[in-house]
Design brief:
By secondary structure, the protein is mainly α. The chain has one domain. It has helices at about 20-25, 30-45, 60-80, 85-105, 115-120. The protein is globular, with a radius of gyration of 17 Å.
Length: about 120
Amino acid sequence: MTEVPELPEDPARTDSEPTVRELAEIPAVEVITRAAVMLMSAAAEKLGLSEDDPEESPHRDLDEARRLITALAGLVKASVEYLGPHAGPVRDGLKQLQLAFRESSAFPEEPGHGPGEKFTGPVW
């Protein structure tokens, strides 16, 4: 059996971030949910949703938001059967981001053609 080398300590790491060895002890549903939450949070930032006026956000980048939302949709589609009670809130969060994207776009796409909709179907 090959031994996994220890990673050097990262000074930016907080106690809430698991080390590689601790990841083996975390249930898959929690890893998937954490990844979904990270994608949701990043997409919300790229949509400017953390600002009072999203259009004035220095972090607003709809192209990046599109990529994050599409990745989130793919993750949700592939893992929904494993999410159990987390599936509903994660899908709701995805839908809200898809709708926020449509509202943010100067030229909104038709339902079924927005970010991630190839995985989720049209969002209204």
